[in-house]
């Protein structure tokens, strides 16, 4: 009689625990827009979600601890003129968030510590370059102020937020159809994309070259999503020819056959993958589902191991994923999701059952910290670097807010004037530019007066 050996894993018994009612965010109006993004973004300071708004696009930002019923007149971030499709917090500044919208723009916002008191209408910088709606936003994981956006014009733009300029462009010659997903590699040297032309591509964005390409990773016609996972592998979610949902693991050096391909169910929602590089666990969340599946990725066959599934009664309209530094390590929490219901946002903690309250070093290896490893110029110059790691042994304390420095002022006025001078300027344009110049001159005069007063004070002493 043969005995079946059960694979040992410290994550076999991971379980999901939804937060109590008083720890949820109640009475929020989640966006009704049809789009395959998470609609929610979280970090150790704030929770943001895309909400319904009349006369344009808006999203709600709340301090993480401000749970309970949300005031219906709570201030929103409302600078877009059409619905917001995607939002993402900057990994190197917990007060900075970027948003992409149907109005074809990307906006970068700075949220003060403590949250908003008044509606936020003026972004730090507006990034204009797409000709159709912008549905994907992704910050570079290790380079400061580098932001990627993908639009329905089949174009990927990489921005230097510090200058407000598009520094790299991947045009329709790379992606001839709608882009479904974009993901950075851990060191930010490559991006992985999935497209409506049924191809998954691995691209070196600085050179604009396709490093590897896989045609039809899944046979179905529904959208495919792809993310980088550990050791040069990618994971894809998609559909079979019979419309069954699938998850597959691929070696980027040998894309002919998958390392693992598993069929899940026949639901119609697109699966959004979230990968944790510290534990090698990937979580699959489907829009419209009421469950979260999770798998462990190993370096030996069969490579992709099903762990378990968290199920609840209500379906999810979107999902946010907390970075590792925002978790409660004393409770052995290895992941936390923010599940969007129709009128509620519900935190769900993924926990490893352990009896000890001591810090569990095997669960929490050094993880990505908030400091960038490179400047935008270094990355554009060809350098790559992994994230700067921090230990969570003594818990994580968010640093004080860092100012996002953007080169604005006279330069932006001149750039706009130059762009608008290519055709005959309208009287409105001239008036607006003159008004901006007057405001800037008044600011300069006010600063000069302050300097004079300061000099007088120093001389008097």
TrEMBL record:
It comes from the Eukaryota. Keywords: Acetylation, Actin-binding, Coiled coil, Cytoplasm, Cytoplasmic vesicle, Cytoskeleton, Membrane, Phosphoprotein, Repeat, Ubl conjugation, WD repeat. GO terms for molecular function: actin filament binding; actin monomer binding; myosin heavy chain binding; phosphatidylinositol 3-kinase binding; protein homodimerization activity. Coiled coil: none annotated. The keyword Phosphoprotein applies. Residues 407-432 are annotated as: Disordered. Residues 4-68 form the DUF1899 domain. Residues 407-418 have a biased composition (Basic and acidic residues). It is found in: Cytoplasm, Cell cortex; Cytoplasm, Cytoskeleton; Cytoplasmic vesicle, Phagosome membrane. InterPro entries: Coronin, DUF1899, Trimer_CC, WD40/YVTN_repeat-like_dom_sf, WD40_repeat_CS, WD40_repeat_dom_sf, WD40_rpt. It holds the Pfam family WD40_4. Its main location: cytoplasm. WD repeats lie at residues 77-119, 127-169. GO terms for biological process: actin filament organization; calcium ion transport; cell-substrate adhesion; cellular response to interleukin-4; early endosome to recycling endosome transport; epithelial cell migration; homeostasis of number of cells within a tissue; leukocyte chemotaxis. GO terms for cellular component: actin filament; axon; cell-cell junction; cortical actin cytoskeleton; early endosome; glutamatergic synapse; immunological synapse; lamellipodium. Belongs to the WD repeat coronin family. Binds actin. This is Coronin. It comes from Mesocricetus auratus.
């Amino acid at each position: 009689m043969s005995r079946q050996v059960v694979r040992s894993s410290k994550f076999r018994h991971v379980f999901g625990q939804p937060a109590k009612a008083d720890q949820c965010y109640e009475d929020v109006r989640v966006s009704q827009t049809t789009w395959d993004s998470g609609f929610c973004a979280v970090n150790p300071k704030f929770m943001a979600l895309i909400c319904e708004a009349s006369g344009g696009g808006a999203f709600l930002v709340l301090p993480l601890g401000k749970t309970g019923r949300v005031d219906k007149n709570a201030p929103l971030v409302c600078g877009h003129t059409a619905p917001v499709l995607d939002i993402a917090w900057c990994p190197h500044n917990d007060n900075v968030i970027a948003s992409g919208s149907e109005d074809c723009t990307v906006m970068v916002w700075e949220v003060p510590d403590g949250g908003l008191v008044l509606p936020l209408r003026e972004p730090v910088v507006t990034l204009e370059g797409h000709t159709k709606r912008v549905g994907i936003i992704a910050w570079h994981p290790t380079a400061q102020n580098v932001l990627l956006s993908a639009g329905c014009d089949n174009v990927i733009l990489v921005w230097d937020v510090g200058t407000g300029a598009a520094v790299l462009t991947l045009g329709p010659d790379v992606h001839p159809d709608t882009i479904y997903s974009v993901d950075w590699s851990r060191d930010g040297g490559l991006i992985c994309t999935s497209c409506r032309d049924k191809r998954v591509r691995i691209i070196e964005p600085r050179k604009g070259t396709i490093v590897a390409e896989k045609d039809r990773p899944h046979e179905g016609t529904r959208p495919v999503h792809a993310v980088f996972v550990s050791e040069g592998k990618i994971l894809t979610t998609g559909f079979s020819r019979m419309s069954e949902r699938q998850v597959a693991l691929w070696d980027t050096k040998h894309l002919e056959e998958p390392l693992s391909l598993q069929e899940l169910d026949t639901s119609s929602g697109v699966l959004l993958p979230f990968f944790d590089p510290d534990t090698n666990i990937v979580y699959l969340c489907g829009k419209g589902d009421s469950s979260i599946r999770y798998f462990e990725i190993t370096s030996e066959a069969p490579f992709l191991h099903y762990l378990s599934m968290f199920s609840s009664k209500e379906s999810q309209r979107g999902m946010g994923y907390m970075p590792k530094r925002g978790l409660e390590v004393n409770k052995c929490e290895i992941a936390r999701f923010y599940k969007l219901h129709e009128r509620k946002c519900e935190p769900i903690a993924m926990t490893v059952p352990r009896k000890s309250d001591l810090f569990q070093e095997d669960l929490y290896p050094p993880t990505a910290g908030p400091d960038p490893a490179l400047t935008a110029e270094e990355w554009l110059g060809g350098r790559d670097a992994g994230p700067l790691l921090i230990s969570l042994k003594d818990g994580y304390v968010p640093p004080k807010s860092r100012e996002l420095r953007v080169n604005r002022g006279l330069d932006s006025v001149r750039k706009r004037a130059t762009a608008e001078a290519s055709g005959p300027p309208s009287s409105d344009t001239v008036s607006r530019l003159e008004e901006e110049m007057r405001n800037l001159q008044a600011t300069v005069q006010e600063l000069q007066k302050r300097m004079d007063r300061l000099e007088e004070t120093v001389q008097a002493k």
